[in-house]
Amino acid sequence: MKKLFWMPAAAVAVFLMPEIASAHFTLVEPASWIVETNALGDPQKLAPCGGTSQNAGTPTGALTEVMGGASLHIKLRETVFHPGHYRVALAVNTRSELPADPDVTTRDTPNGPRSVSAKIMSPVAPPVLADGLFVHTEKALPDTFFETDVRLPNINCAKCTLQIVEFMAEHGHNPDGDYSYHHCADLHIRANPSMPIAKGWPGQS
Question: Which pTM does this prediction carry?
C-alpha cells in the first residue's frame, strides 16, 4: 500500500503549528461527484460532500465502476497547506449514513477557538474505511500527491458515496465546515461472487 506522509493511526493526532491560511485539497481519483471549479478544489467546505452554504456546487454525473472486496486507489493533492490528516468513509444508501466530522479539541485564542487535535478511529469500523491517513505537519513539495489503496467491502451498491474528509489542525472555526473540508465520489460497486457478502453494511444479505 502506497502512502505519502503517513503515520500510524492513533487515538488522537495533535499538531501545534503557527497560524497558517486555510487548507484546500483536490480529489483526483476516483472522479469527484462535484465540479472542482479551480485549482484549489473548491467548493469543498460544507459537510458531507463539499459545496458551501452559498454554492451547492455543480454535479459532474461521474459514477466510478468498482468491484466489491477490491482495493480502490485514492489520489488527492493538498493545494493549500495545513497540518492535519484525512479520513475515508462509505455510505451505501444515502449520505446521511456518513459519519459526523471528526471530534475536535480546540484552544481559545483572541480570535476565537482554534483546532488542536481530532480523534482518529482505530481500528476502523463501518462506515469508516480508513482514518489517520497522510498525517503531516510540514508542507509537501509542489505537485506532490497523496495516494493510497483502500479495501472496499464486498457489497452491491448502485450508487454509494465515498467521502474523503480533511481534518485541519491550527484552523479557525468555519461555519460551513467546522474544522474539516470535504470531497466525495459516487461509486457503483458490484460484489465479487467468489467472496462472501459483507453483511455488516446496510442492505446486504
Answer: 0.84
